[in-house]
Amino acid sequence: MPKRDDLKKVLIIGSGPIVIGQACEFDYSGTQACKALRSLGYQIVLVNSNPATIMTDPGMADVTYIEPLSLEYLTYIIEKERPDALLPNLGGQTGLNLSSQLAKAGVLEKYGVRVIGVNVDAIERGEDRTAFKETMQRLGIDMPASKAVYSLEEAEQAADELGYPVVVRPAYTMGGTGGGLVYNKEELQTIATRGLAASIVNQVLIEESVLGWEELELEVVRDAKNQMITVCFIENVDAMGVHTGDSYCTAPMLTIDAELQKKLQRYAYAIVEAIQVIGGTNIQFAHDPASGRVVVIEINPRTSRSSALASKATGFPIAFVSALLAGGLTLDEIPYWRDGTLDKYTPSGDYVVVKFARWAFEKFEGVQDKLGTQMRAVGEVMSIGKSYKEALQKAIRSLEIGRPGLGFARDFNRKELPELLSLLNTASSERHFIMYEALRKGASVDELHRLTNIKQWFILQMQELVQLEEKILATQDRPLPDALLAEAKRDGFSDRYLARLLKAPEDQIREQRTRLGLVESWEAVPVSGVENAAYYFSTYQAPQQHPVTSNKKIMVLGGGPNRIGQGIEFDYCCVHAAFAIRDAGFESIMVNCNPETVSTDYDTSDKLYFEPLTLEDVLSIYQKEKPLGVIVQFGGQTPLNLANDLARAGVTILGTSPETIDLAEDRDRFRKVMDRMGIPQPESGMAADLEQALAIAQRIGYPLMVRPSYVLGGRAMMIVLDEKMLRRYVAAAVDVSPERPILIDKFLQNAIEVEADAIADGETVFIPAIMQHIEYAGIHSGDSSCVIPPVAIAERHLDTIARYTKQIAKELQVKGLMNIQYAIADEVVYILEANPRASRTVPLVSKVCNIPMAKIATQIMLGKKLAEFKLQNRPFRHFGVKSAVFPFNMFPEVDPILGPEMRSTGEVLGLADSFGLAFYKAQEAAGMTLPTQGTVLITVTDRDKEEILEVARRFHNLGFKLLATEGTQKFLDRNGIRSQQILKIYEGRPHIVDALKNGEIQLIVNTPMGKLSEIDDSYIRKSAIKYKIPYLTTTTAALAATVGIHAARKGKAGVKSLQAYHRDIGKES
Residue 620: CB partners within 8 Å, gap ≥ 6? Predict the structure, then answer.
């Protein structure tokens, strides 16, 4: 079938901010969809609230709306743009749910919008638990016994009938949000209540437990002719009971026999035919090896996290092909490198892929490192090897958690076997590292299988790695035999890990293996669906056969796995670098190991190496390709950590020198440079013990900002208010010594934090934007809301910030990007830190100001001068407000307060012609829609009482009813503001939580009492999340909320595309 000619304009809904369960894989799939449909000649309208994505760049779609993903805003956009069709299944669960809501509200019918890719009733058949069960019964496909329920009472009755344990699965959610495995009635009450709240239709499935069964996934693609192919067979190594997003898995299936795979394929084809999806579908099965029973767990009638993995594992771009199929093409019209057309596709490839998750438990105090049916990973890596062992070891070193191998993690090697075995009773992020040490201590394969339900074959492979490692350790007092080194390299042992085992320099291992001819060779993964495309992986198990060109090349190092503090913003910069390199006439080479990202798409760069970002792997590629230079300043901390070692090995680092980047991170050296330049900094000191810390505190005065010197990204930072807190912090700090001192800074209270982004060529500096944080200094810049342009900073301070930024960029000889953070306190501008590299603000500033920062910075690194771009700060009338998105709903045991340590997973952007409306839209996009009427609960600590007066006055003037706890209520009353007292949870009934449960409170303003308080007030904030009540934990955010609510009441003024905002920049008002 040719492309559909009844369509001209197609609407694509993105997935919104990065959250646990729905990450940057949807930036990848949405970007592919835009490319595919534009290649067919369609006009694309894209809607997404996430500014950090490539997808929302103005050049990716014809019309781009950065708006809240809600029924209201989608209706505005459809009314304005009048698309012919809606493609719902490439925007994750968000896109699917919104499409369903638009259909039910009659919006699609009213404006004549057809749904392509998946029918609206097919969404229901796939997502609604009752409808899906009915479909499976009609097909004769077994499911776990289950019952869909709509209340806690029904849930308890269903669980009693099925027998505990049971699984709770909310409908229309992703990442297992709100669900879980429960063993008793008390746990059921907690999780079923949470699940009912998480589901947009207030429905959960109470399901028979298949804990411990094998979990198997198929990625299937179907076209309008009902032609179906299986793209990938995925085997989860972790058994049922661990969410697929947390489970580590392999492709192809390594222990599943051909007959069972055929059976799964038959079931999968029957399901996608019944659901009638055009494009990709993910189907999850459970298999009981003891009885042979197979049940279908769920399907995703859309591209998913597994789709991105399957795409990168096989070279089959599922989202790209799905979009072509939605546009009317069929599989027999799309090219296939092996057998002509895609209808003949079968998975092939003589290699093994391993996916391993990355978590962030250390960021959340009080959270349990425990894996279950609700996803908790914040990112993942993918590795490719010629054998399972090689791929597994490459995956471990790709994680960037300071572990170049599986052994000697934490203190597991020092524990006795019984303790290690007891740790394996519960699945955790450390499970496989614990198993490795248990095998070393003599645990049997069967014993570990019994404890973990991981199949014996995988444990046996791990045991063989342990046995080989023990042989290597036995040679510590003599040279490593060549034969043993060769065997270790073939099984995936990295140079760094071998060096650690043998207590030898890494260079020594590298020299020995190079002398033996043990060097990486590369094999291709051919790309299906397009002509002549491939990407590459390394192995020590194949001959050198991969050709290289003699073209002039530039290499870009990506950001590795997503994590809190280093997310999709850095991938955005890397992608722009690859585009700019190609535009400048060079061959672009990308190195990365993250399967979710656009940077690892087959056509982002001229050549993609799907490899760990380690010295060994990067140097091997460099020596093979011989590029003119390497760009390290775009991928976050990952490539920066390699920069010095690469430079020492003779690699040319483009842009700002590694020495300058080091200087900016060395607090002592940087302070001396600032002192010489006369730029103020908060007073500070470094303490190697408690006595020194107390002396520094006495000299500079409380409050203090304290942190270890050896931790980056806001980790383990704390605001210390008095001596008691300081003593507690020093006592809890690990390894404090002269080599690892504690850094102590004067904390600037009630200071306004400001960021300046700059582009420099070593001589000239341009500042695209200065942004103001809405929260006071003390909240990590990644978590703070901020606004461009600033709304409450004096012109003289902005001039000072611009002057300091230019002086610092010139002094440090910055070539490329730089971000500097300042604080304004008592009319003085202080510098907090300078980062002479890409920061997470780059995509935000680029989109608000229409200045492609990463592209320009790349061109400067390639030799252009800043003057050639003729950049100028043109005035604009719109405001851009960034708000962060947090994973607290996935960690219900954590107190959701903000501080100096970053905790957000993603961000959204609100754009409007006023600051108030931009702030309101940003809050709505972040899932915290502010009420325009109702009741506000105000309960603040004593230190915030003066600042809450203006907030309370404004809410009162807006007509809100005010509730306040005793101390706050008396303070407001003394100052002439009427409020009604409400009891705290320990003061009697009815109390705050009763009012929240009863829907009597629409907004909470609660500033935390602090860790040293005798009273724990975290229940207020935890309850806000549980009952989905918007809450604000700073007085500045509360003040901004009053401005936002006032603006929203006056009207939301429709919608405006990003391209329209950009066209208005520089126009006279």
Answer: 519, 520, 538
